[in-house]
Design a protein that fits this description.
CATH superfamily of the largest domain: NADH-ubiquinone oxidoreductase 51kDa subunit
Largest sheet: 5 strands, mixed
CATH architecture of the largest domain: 3-Layer(aba) Sandwich
Strand order of the largest sheet: 2-1-3-4-5
Shape: globular
Helix content: 40-55%
Number of strands: 16
Strand content: 15-25%
Radius of gyration: 24 Å
Distance between the termini: 68 Å
Number of domains: 4
Structural class: alpha/beta
């Protein structure tokens, strides 16, 4: 049997993976070869997609990017035996971009068949849950706390504290909610995980249910991910068949039900309380806090809300232990983070590593610099509401505290690169336009501030930056940062002010 792997990931499919898959099966049949085409997740090297892998005695050999017209010549070159071909990239594990990663959360993504539960178990799956089933809720929460895991969705709140708050909250009904409303531009780790290793997320949610005493979980997935909806729906059914969730989880007395809900295209529903409103069938607007969702969340009951990568990081903590996980990282930023490189970058994709890598190493050494070959001008870290960093800040260490000291955020790990042709005044305008478009409208600083901010920046661009105008813009940003109800309005000033402070010449345009 010849085992060949081709990603079912959205990025690979967008590059023609389905046509390649059909051609491989057709060519194998024509040649009378016993070939098993396994659909894995993407390895994260997007410039190589669709990337075909074949299992050989020397390990997995990669070929890519493959088009349907390449398939016949690949068979002629005996690719299924690891043969030489112009598209041959060599052993996957030796590829520079991949070799230097430290994969914990994404350890199985690309390696296993995404929708094979047996493959999942053969590579460490359910080991963490089996251990958690032998522990008390208090011990589970303590293990998580000792690991140092913080929320990977952007706020970086200690996960153990959140879980313990929900565990101690008195209620007969509690919930676990997965925030898969991945709306930040330049981010795609949630999607890659749910398409490449969906059982890992399910396992993490079940462990969370055990920890806090919840018997019901919801996955809130953005509607813009139709391929993810399809893959994860199938994964849920397979996981229930193998008793990963449902009644008597893995033969225990614990019962945990799961339900997938699809959002309606609102960016602000990535904010946890707006997400809860949407789950309850209401318009997605932000709630005032307190009370915290861990005390009074979904339907007024104690609710743990974590994003995909946070929950998917839980199984390995319980499989390998808190001390193992805590060995990775620096300072108060423990473990690993899947960083997503996009924008004007030569080698864009997902790079998982321990906290502590510098931005320069990531962009220049692993990302290969700008795709255009022009000098780098700015980097936005943390999504559309993250601050812009200049070339003099490339030696910044990628951890939560370092970015905060620069007035930014590490956020969801999205990193967008710009070369020297970018107009930073236009980028500042985009931030205000984005906020005005996506604001839920509940609070005045965000609803009105974003519109006024857009008008002010347009004046700066059309008439040139003057002290009165820039002072007014700064005052407006201060009001938004201090008075907004959630991070939507409070963080919009970060890209605006960082662009204004670090790239003032871009605001000196004259009509």
């Amino acid at each position: 049997m010849i085992n060949v792997y081709l990603p079912l990931d959205s990025a690979a499919r967008a590059c023609g993976a389905e046509a390649v898959a059909a051609e491989i099966l057709s060519e194998a049949k024509r040649r009378g070869l016993n070939l098993h085409l396994r659909r894995n997740g993407s390895r994260g090297m997007v410039w190589c997609e669709p990337m075909l892998e074949v299992q050989t005695q020397q390990g997995r050999i990669a070929y890519g990017p493959v088009t349907p017209s390449d398939v016949s010549s690949l068979f002629d070159a005996d690719f299924h035996g690891g043969g030489v071909h112009p598209l041959c990239l060599g052993p996957v594990e030796d590829l520079f971009f991949f070799k230097h990663q430290q994969r914990l959360t994404f350890a199985r993504v690309g390696k296993t068949e995404a929708l094979s539960f047996l493959d999942y178990c053969a590579h460490g799956g359910i080991s963490g849950l089996r251990r958690a089933l032998t522990m008390t809720p208090e011990a589970i929460v303590q293990e998580l706390t000792d690991s140092g895991l913080r929320g990977r969705g952007g706020a970086a709140f200690p996960t153990g504290i959140k879980w313990n708050t929900a565990r101690l909250a008195p209620s007969d009904q509690k919930y676990v909610v997965c925030n898969a409303d991945e709306g930040d531009s330049g981010t795609f780790s949630d999607r890659m995980l749910m398409e490449g290793d969906p059982f890992c997320l399910i396992e993490g949610m079940v462990i969370a249910g055990l920890a806090v005493g919840a018997n019901k979980g919801y996955i809130y997935l953005r509607s813009e991910y139709p391929n993810t909806v399809d893959v994860f729906t199938r994964a849920l059914a397979l996981a229930k068949d193998h008793r990963l969730w449902g009644r008597n989880v893995l033969g225990s007395e614990f019962t945990f039900e799961l339900e997938l809900r699809i959002g309606a295209g609102s960016y602000v529903c990535g904010e946890e309380t707006a997400l809860l409103e949407s789950l309850e069938g209401k318009r997605g607007v932000v709630r005032a806090k307190p009370p915290l969702p861990a005390i009074s969340g979904l339907f007024g009951q104690p609710t743990v809300i974590n994003n995909v990568v946070t929950l998917a990081s839980v199984p390995i903590i319980f499989e390998r232990g808190a001390a193992f996980y805590r060995e990775f990282g620096v300072g108060r930023s423990r473990g690993t983070l899947p960083l997503q490189l996009s924008g004007n970058i030569r080698y864009g994709g997902l790079f998982e590593t321990a906290f502590g890598l510098t931005l320069r190493t990531l962009i220049e050494d692993f990302g290969g610099g700008t795709r255009s070959g022009r000098p780098l001008k700015a980097v936005q870290v943390g999504g559309p509401l993250g601050a812009y960093l200049g070339v003099d800040e490339l030696d910044t260490v990628l951890d939560y505290e370092s970015l905060i000291r620069l007035g930014g955020t590490l956020g969801h790990g999205g990193i967008v690169v710009f070369d020297d042709t970018v107009d930073m005044a236009q980028q500042a305008l985009y931030a205000m336009e984005f906020c005005a478009l996506e604001s839920c409208g509940k609070c005045t600083p965000c609803r009105v501030g974003a519109v006024r901010g857009k008008e002010l920046i347009e004046e700066l661009i059309e008439q040139g930056a003057t002290a009165p105008r820039t002072d007014l813009l700064r005052d407006l940003c201060q009001v938004m940062a201090s008075g907004s109800l959630c991070a939507m309005g409070a963080m919009t000033p970060a890209p605006v002010l960082s662009a204004l402070d670090k790239f003032p010449k871009d605001f000196l345009h004259q009509p």
